[in-house]
Input
Amino acid sequence: MTPVGPPASAVPTLRDLVYAGVVTGSWAALLSLIVYGFARLIGVPFEVAVPGSSDLQQVPWFVLLLAPLAAALIGALLASLALGRAHAQRLVFWIGTAIAVASLASPLIQPADVEWSSRLWLVIPHAITWFLVVPQIARIVGDSQPGNFVLQPTGEASSS
Output
């Protein structure tokens, strides 16, 4: 067995990351929209305080469709900065996780007027987006790390 680096076509590029961002972000958006619809059916008001306003406003459905997709695309673009670097997979995974945890502040740190049911149901799309996007983007970036190789048989023929 000889360590052989992958062909250049197998090393992920920005295009691969953007594609993964669109696919994972679209799935996260669709699942978030389903969660939103279910929660609205059971009576969750989804009323939150908007910065700069003292009134509570209902979160529109299209926000739960666009936010996961936008987060996935921005995450993929930022992750492209780690392509080809050592420990890229771990770096992208943990930074993505930290950003996802920080994003939980928006639904959880709301004024007392906002119902906890709205806060908790708004956490679910954040979790869905993290679960679908961050590990996949990190895995793709990890494929570009230096030192990744595939063991293949050498194919040596015996001479007689």
In short: The chain has a mean pLDDT of 88. The longest helix spans residues 14-41. The chain has one domain: 14-145.
